[in-house]
Amino acid sequence: MHITAEILTIGDEILYGQINDTNSTWIGQQLSERGIKVIRKTTVGDVENEMMAAFAEAEKRADIIIITGGLGPTKDDLTKPLLARYFGMELALHEEALAEITALFEKRGFQMTDTNRQQAWLPKGSTKLTNRMGTAPGMWFEKGDKTFVSLPGVPYEMKVLISEQVIPRLREKYTLPVIYHKMIRTIGIGESWLSDKIEWWETSLPPHIRLAYLPSPGEVKLRLTGAGPNLETLAKEVQAEIDRVLPDIQKFVYGYDQETIESAIGKLLLERKLTVSTAESCTGGYLAHEITSVPGSSAYYVGSIISYDNRIKTDELGVKQETLDTVGAVSEETVRQMAEGVRKRLKTDIGLATSGVAGPDGGTPEKPVGTVWIACAFEGQTFTRKLQLTTDRQINIHASALHTLNLLRTSLMEMEEVAK
Fold this sequence. Notes:
InterPro entries: CinA, CinA-like_C, CinA_C, CinA_KH, Competence-induced_CinA, MoaB/Mog-like_dom_sf, MoaB/Mog_dom. It comes from Imperialibacter roseus. This is CinA-like protein. By secondary structure, the chain is α/β, with parallel strands linked by helices. It folds into three domains: 3-173, MoaB/Mog-like domain (Molybdenum Cofactor Biosythetic Enzyme, Chain A); 178-256, Alpha-Beta Plaits; 261-419, Maf protein. It contains 16 helices and 17 strands. It has a six-stranded mixed beta sheet with strand order 2-1-3-8-7-6, with helices on both faces. A five-stranded mixed beta sheet has the order 14-13-15-16-17, with helices on both faces. Helix 2 runs parallel beside helix 7, helix 3 packs across helix 4 (79-86) and helix 11 (261-272) runs parallel beside helix 16. The longest helix has 27 residues, at 393-419.
């Protein structure tokens, strides 16, 4: 039997699109990892009758209701008084909460006001969850076998409360099943092609292991989810299934779980003691940003030349003017010369380059928006690839960087295979 949960986020600002609801995504991940099945995520504005109705509806559907937001000290923060009304409790000053809030203000050197003191008034009958990161305590309510948890909407405050207090309490109250997730991260193959390639494997998976496709621009993640009584057994079974399918998709797999393509590339470069530099046109520095987002990337990444203007391509990278005049900046010849030029100019083992039409305008019938050339240059050998992406500028920039990093990965694989 599943233990179920509903995540309820409170706030007009979420409905208006003024902030992104990252809280429910993170909470869903944490609950899922503990064997709690999230059956619904709901967002409600700061409206009394809507919030009260949402509490009642969630109670009918789920065993656990996690609420974030609306715990501030101002009049538009309604979650605390409405939960008190919902459970038939009075608000009363909680001395321990007041002491904790007072200490936090003193530590930060701020004067506490009467409005701030309102944070210490809690529904009498609820359990206080100490918020060591902020002034709004969390609250725990029980109604038979149902549990309501109210948490601040500030992400870093909510995360500490979930990790340190909510999860341990849920484990004490409920007998949670074991759920095990494993992510296979692929790049360079579309979802439908990947599905066709592994259909034989997908249809032969045991009933207690499920497969989900999670596509995003440039890559597809395969999530395997196993359910059973023993975590160690599940992990072994899932790994056995991965070992079974891996020979068919090995060249597309760059990592597992939370690994990114940029961190996977970093490991390859460190293992092989190689350095890399970048020459960017259409990506405008985004490729360099992705590479340097990895801690320790200074060990293998040297620098970049952003050759957005053709003059930089010729003056700094050594691209021939004749090439630009005859085939243009968005061409195999140009991107090849860019990659080779930056490798020589910055004295690295590898040079990467991008040049394309990011959009939304600038395209031609011969080179429509989304046309991108990428290159990866080693000493004596350069690999190139043409991409035909979307009409969305940001997607094109992001996808171009991902594909360029993957070109580096596959180029290394090809060279090593030849060397054997």
